[in-house]
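Supplementary Text 2. Reproducibility record for the structural model of the 154-residue chain.

All settings were left at their defaults, and a single model was retained for analysis rather than an ensemble. We include the record here because the model underlies the residue-level annotations in Supplementary Table 4.
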Amino acid sequence: MTNKIQIYTDGACSGNPGPGGWAAVLLSGAHRKEISGFEQSTTNNRMELVAVIRGLESIKFPRPPMADIMEPIEVLADSAYVVNAINQGWITNWQRNDWITSTKEPVKNRDLWEQLIALNAKLKPRYIKVKGHSDNVHNNRADELAVAEIKKNT
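Retained model, structure tokens:
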């Protein structure tokens, strides 16, 4: 029995900015959970971040008592924006530079990045980039859910 948790995430936006949807598909052993939501006026990058944040927030603790060896939480996203910011250390640089980018602009979505930093410190997930709109059934499902949120709310 595995205690690995995988979270497939995606965000969508109709216009940029415009109405947006986010979704996450959480998998652990035989368990599966799908979550999604909508924001009236947002951007695609914000929806990508919200999907990851809500996915991580929805993990239930404590893990099963038999899980004496904690396997990593994996966040699988097609967003280079999110995955590269984590894996390539952009967030660390932004914090070091008082939330200013390398182009001397304020970091966009700082409020969401700060939430994600706190979750990362607590849960220590591993971020994996997946190809969007490809043959990954779980990533495709997250995309479907995010787009469906826009359609049902506009």
